[in-house]
Automatic annotation (TrEMBL):
<feature type="signal peptide">
    <location>
        <begin position="1"/>
        <end position="22"/>
    </location>
</feature>
<keyword id="KW-0732">Signal</keyword>
<protein>
    <submittedName>
        <fullName>Glutamine synthetase</fullName>
    </submittedName>
</protein>
Length: 125
């Protein structure tokens, strides 16, 4: 799985469950306004999160792969669908479903990656 997809899923997971027990990369430096959060991490990767109603727009730059990526997340009650595309042509789709304190996540990528996993506020992913 490409790094951008990992970061976007991790970002989505952190936004959805609010707490993660996984070890995170070095903290990023962020700037925030009412609807926009823009960050750059210690490795030079950059991303932004913009909210408009129940839709989240993520955009980023992956320094290692020197590629840009964008992802859109649309929420419908307890279900969030996401689609993304990268400058190298990779595309991905998936969903996250909240059930109490648990999220059920599934995604697939044109690069051949795909997974289904469950995350909990108590036990993590």
């Amino acid at each position: 799985m490409k790094t951008a997809l990992k970061y976007s899923l991790l970002s989505l997971g952190l936004l959805m469950i609010g707490n993660a027990s996984a070890q995170l990369p070095a903290l990023a430096t962020c700037t925030r306004s009412a609807n926009l959060l823009a960050c750059v991490d210690a490795d030079g990767n950059a991303y932004s999160v913009n909210t408009v109603g129940d839709t989240l727009y993520l955009r980023g730059f992956e320094k290692t792969g020197r590629r840009y990526w964008a992802q859109t997340n649309s929420r419908f009650g307890q279900l969030t669908f996401f689609t993304g595309v990268a400058s190298d042509g990779e595309a991905w789709v998936g969903y996250t479903r909240r059930v109490g304190w648990t999220t059920i996540n599934r995604f697939s990528s044109s690069g051949g990656s795909g997974a289904k996993f469950t995350c909990s506020r108590i036990t993590g992913c």
